[in-house]
Amino acid sequence: MDAVIIGAGMGGMTAALALEQIGVTTRVYERVTENKPVGAAISVWSNGVKCLNYLGLSEQTRLLGGIVDSMSYVDGHTGETMCRFSMQPLIDEVGQRPYPIARADLQHMLMDAYGMDRIHFGQTMVAVEDGPDLATAIFADGSTVSADMIIGADGAGSITREYVLGGPVSRRYAGYVNYNGLVAADDAIGPATEWTTYVADGQRVSVMPVAGDRFYFFFDVVEAQGLAYDRTAARAVLRHHFADWAPGVHALIDALNPAATNRVEILDLDPFDTWVKGRVAVLGDAAHNTTPDIGQGGCSAMEDAIALQWAVRDHPGDVHTALQSYQLARAERAGELVLRARKRCDVTHGKDPAVTARWYAELREEDGSNIIRGIVGNIMGGPVTPVE
Ligand SMILES: Cc1cc2nc3c(=O)[nH]c(=O)nc-3n(C[C@H](O)[C@H](O)[C@H](O)COP(=O)(O)OP(=O)(O)OC[C@H]3O[C@@H](n4cnc5c(N)ncnc54)[C@H](O)[C@@H]3O)c2cc1C
């Protein structure tokens, strides 16, 4: 069997690695001409880490991951700690430490594991077609490639999804913008092994460690969609939005590199159950585009990759049944995570200010157990984290 994979993001690369693990020949096509991930880092929660372990990348992942021993919530205005708790109960319960990882590091790790020089960069797929014996991808330069199956891991704006669903779908603006980047770890911002989140006014500022004594940081700002962004103004924009916030937030704004600070408008997509048309399937953000509010989009893409492997393994020589079985294994779980993230997004970003105020009050009473229960609920339920 062979597979063509469109997109060399974390979904496409883990899918390629997973399929090759069971002897499927893969070819990966990526529109960008070089590996340049958008965004600074992600939190790979324990389910994502378990997927990477399954793919034989446990040691590399551990070396790239930041050590998060504790989490804290801090009042954005006063700097007062609302709650602080150990991550150990979570690690004990799910059997794996989560790892925040710089995106460039994660992407390199996956591409190197597959073979950087095997990836066909600079190839933009413009159409895909199913056929009785093979499926075919058509590229902008007019070239075509056919295989037993085509896996569209072509991200949130997927054209494979358009093909599978029979038309375009509209994504929904979630109401906030995420400014993110990497900065040297500094106690003035937060403790080196803590995931610190400042909250107030339906906005949040968060830092968490990644390898190399760095913090991944992000600022969630409730602002209109489509505003012009001049990177050089990042510091001024953030100073404006967080003028009366705590000293730790200002230490972060002072330390960040404006030229390397990304502005990402956050959108998501209503879950849908049709992921497959004949020999063509979607995977990752193409199949389930979520807000990042529970940090599960990329983890879910990795879960797709493992589920795809198992479906193909269990239906040798029968692509149609394998892909239907993949869809059945994944659509409900992935859709649930999208809806959970949406719910969390609304609470965090003050959709109903009374609900957000109640959450802030709860954080002051929190000993960690409710938050950990919620995170464990997100982590459990995928292929490598089955619920007993
Ligand atoms: C601000 C932010 C924070 C996030 N934080 C987290 C987090 O903490 N934890 C987590 O698990 N997830 C997080 N996510 C989600 C995560 O980034 C995505 O779920 C993940 O990147 C999806 O991977 P993917 O491979 O499906 O898509 P992508 O990473 O988008 O990759 C798709 C690839 O396909 C290529 N491509 C697209 N169209 C074509 C085409 N026509 N032809 C050829 N190539 C094409 C693109 O160039 C791209 O390289 C976050 C997202 C955002 C926006």
TrEMBL record:
Pfam families: FAD_binding_3
Gene3D superfamilies listed in its UniProt record: FAD/NAD(P)-binding domain
Enzyme Commission code(s) on record: 1.14.13.113
Keyword Flavoprotein attached: yes
InterPro entries: FAD-bd, FAD-dep_Monooxygenase_BioMet, FAD/NAD-bd_sf, HpxO
Family of this protein: Belongs to the FAD-dependent urate hydroxylase family.
PANTHER family: MONOOXYGENASE, PUTATIVE (AFU_ORTHOLOGUE AFUA_6G14510)-RELATED
Protein name: FAD-dependent urate hydroxylase
Organism: Mycolicibacterium iranicum
Lineage: Bacteria, Bacillati, Actinomycetota, Actinomycetes, Mycobacteriales
Encoding gene, per UniProt annotation: hpxO
